[in-house]
C-alpha cells in the first residue's frame, strides 16, 4: 500500500535513489535475495471464473425499505449474551479440583465411539470454525452488507450477532474433541487454516436474493447434520456429546427461521426475482460452505468426508432433496401466479427438482450397494482407515 500523500512513483524513485547512493553489504544482498526468492502465499484450492454483479438501484431499495421489518423480525431472533449458553457450560471446569476426573470420564466415553463418527464430527466442527469466511460472504451481498464494520443497520447488526452466536459452535466442538484425545488436533488445525485461506465459492454473485436462499438451505442442512450427530452420539452412549450436538442444532434451527423469514418477505414483495433466484441457486447446486477443505494431504478430502456422512446418515442426498422440498412448500412456490415467462420457467423447474433428485439417489444407492467397499485414510484420526 502506498503511503498517504505520496504518489506510488515518487516512493519507488526514492527507494531506487537511496539504493544507488549506498553500497549494499553482503548481508543486505543475501537478505534481499532471500526476500526476492520467497514464494507468495496462494490458497491451496483456487476457484476460477468467479462472477460478481451489482444489484440495480430499484432492487437495492427493497432491502432499504425492509430495515424496520428486519429489526422486528430478524433481530428478535438473536438471543442476548446473558441468556445464551457458552461452551464452558458443557465442558470440564479447569478451575475445579474435579477437572481431571471429569476429563477422564469424557475420554472414557470417547473411547466407545468409532472413527467414522469422529470423521463426521470433525468435518462439522471444521465447517463451523471457518466462520470468518461466512461473515465475509454475508458482507458481499448488495444492500445488506456491513458498510463500516460497526454499522447500526439492522442487516449489519444481524450479521454480527449471527456470527457471534455461531462462533460458539466451533469453539465448543473443538474443545470437546481436544479433550477426547481421539483425533489429531494438529491436522485438524491445519485443515481449518487451509479452509479459511481458501474461502468459499457458493455462486451467489453478490445477490441478496440468492444469498438468503443459500443461507436458508444451508442452515436447515446444518440443523439436520448436527441433529444426526447428536442421535449417533446418544446411540454410542455419550449423552453429553449428544447434548452438545443437539444444542448446536437448536441454534441452527433458530437461524434457519430467520433466513427463511427473509425469503418469505422477498417472495411477498418480488416473487418473480425470488423464484428466479431460487431456481438459479438450484441449477448451480447448493454446495456446502466447507467444500474447499484440505488437510495438506488429501485433495479429495471434502468428497471423502461427505461419503462417510452419507453412509452413516449424518447428511445425505436424501436430506438434500428433503430440504429442497421443505423450502418449496414453505415459500408456496407451486402456487405462485402472475409471474414473467422466466419466472414461470423457474417455478416449474424448482417444483420438479426434488422428485428428480430422489430418483437419482435411488439409482446411486443401488450402485453403492453392489460396488466393492473401500476405505480412505483420514489424517484427522491419525491416518486410520475409514470406510467411505
Describe the 3D structure:
Residues 24-52 are annotated as: Disordered. Its cofactor is Fe cation; Fe(2+). Belongs to the fatty acid desaturase type 2 family. The chain is mainly alpha-helical and 388 residues long. It has a single domain (99-387), classed as Ribonucleotide Reductase, subunit A. The protein is built from 15 helices and 2 strands. A two-stranded antiparallel ribbon has the order 1-2. A hairpin with a 5-residue loop joins strand 1 (375-378) and strand 2 (384-387). Helix 7 runs antiparallel to helix 8. The longest helix has 31 residues, at 239-269. The protein starts with 7 loop residues before the first helix and ends with a strand. 34% of the residues are buried.
Q: Which secondary structure elements does this structure contain, and how are they paired or packed?
A:
Elements lengths: L7 H14 L4 H12 L19 H9 L1 H7 L25 H12 L4 H15 L1 H8 L15 H27 L4 H14 L9 H28 L3 H31 L1 H14 L16 H12 L4 H14 L10 H30 L4 E4 L5 E4 L1
Antiparallel strand pairs: 1-2
Helix pairs in contact: 6-8, 6-9, 6-10, 6-13, 7-8, 8-11, 10-11, 10-12, 10-14, 11-12, 12-15, 14-15
Q: How is this structure best summarized?
A:
The chain is mainly alpha-helical and about 400 residues long. It has helices at about 10-20, 25-35, 55-65, 65-75, 100-110, 115-130, 130-140, 155-180, 185-200, 210-235, 240-270, 270-285, 300-310, 315-330, 340-370, and strands spanning about 375-380, 385.
Amino acid at each position: 500500500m502506498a503511503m498517504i500523500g505520496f504518489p506510488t512513483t515518487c516512493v519507488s524513485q526514492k527507494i531506487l535513489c537511496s539504493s544507488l547512493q549506498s553500497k549494499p553489504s553482503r548481508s543486505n544482498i543475501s537478505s534481499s535475495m532471500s526476500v526476492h526468492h520467497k514464494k507468495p502465499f496462494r490458497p491451496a484450492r483456487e476457484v476460477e471464473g468467479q462472477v460478481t454483479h451489482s444489484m440495480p438501484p430499484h432492487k437495492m431499495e427493497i432491502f432499504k425499505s425492509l430495515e424496520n421489518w428486519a429489526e422486528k423480525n430478524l433481530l428478535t431472533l438473536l438471543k442476548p449474551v446473558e441468556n445464551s449458553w457458552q461452551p464452558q457450560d458443557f465442558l470440564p471446569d479447569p478451575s475445579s479440583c474435579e477437572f481431571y476426573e471429569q476429563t477422564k470420564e469424557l475420554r472414557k466415553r470417547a473411547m466407545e465411539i468409532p472413527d467414522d463418527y469422529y470423521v463426521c464430527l470433525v468435518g462439522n466442527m471444521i465447517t463451523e470454525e471457518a466462520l470468518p469466511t461466512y461473515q465475509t460472504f454475508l458482507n458481499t451481498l448488495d444492500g445488506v452488507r456491513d458498510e463500516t464494520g460497526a454499522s447500526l443497520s439492522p442487516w449489519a447488526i444481524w450479521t454480527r450477532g449471527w456470527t457471534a452466536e455461531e462462533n460458539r459452535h466451533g469453539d465448543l466442538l473443538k474443545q470437546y474433541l481436544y479433550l477426547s484425545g481421539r483425533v489429531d488436533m494438529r491436522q485438524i488445525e491445519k485443515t481449518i487454516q487451509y479452509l479459511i485461506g481458501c474461502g468459499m465459492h457458493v455462486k451467489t454473485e453478490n445477490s441478496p436474493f440468492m444469498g438468503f436462499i443459500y443461507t436458508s438451505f444451508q442452515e436447515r442442512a446444518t440443523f439436520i447434520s448436527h441433529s444426526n450427530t447428536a442421535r449417533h452420539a446418544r446411540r454410542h452412549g455419550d449423552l453429553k456429546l449428544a447434548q452438545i450436538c443437539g444444542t448446536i442444532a437448536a441454534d441452527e434451527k433458530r437461524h434457519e427461521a430467520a433466513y427463511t423469514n427473509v425469503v418469505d418477505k422477498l417472495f411477498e414483495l418480488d416473487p418473480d426475482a425470488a423464484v428466479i433466484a431460487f431456481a438459479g441457486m438450484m441449477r448451480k447446486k447448493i454446495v456446502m460452505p466447507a467444500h474447499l477443505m484440505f488437510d495438506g494431504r488429501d485433495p479429495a478430502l471434502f468428497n471423502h468426508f461427505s461419503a462417510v456422512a452419507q453412509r452413516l446418515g449424518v447428511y445425505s442426498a436424501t436430506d438434500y432433496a428433503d430440504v429442497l422440498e421443505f423450502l418449496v412448500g414453505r415459500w408456496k412456490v407451486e402456487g405462485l401466479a402472475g409471474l414473467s415467462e422466466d419466472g414461470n420457467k423457474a417455478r416449474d423447474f424448482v417444483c420438479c427438482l426434488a422428485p428428480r433428485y430422489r430418483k437419482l439417489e435411488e439409482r446411486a444407492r443401488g450402485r453403492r450397494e453392489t460396488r466393492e467397499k473401500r476405505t480412505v485414510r483420514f489424517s484427522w484420526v491419525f491416518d486410520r482407515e475409514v470406510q467411505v
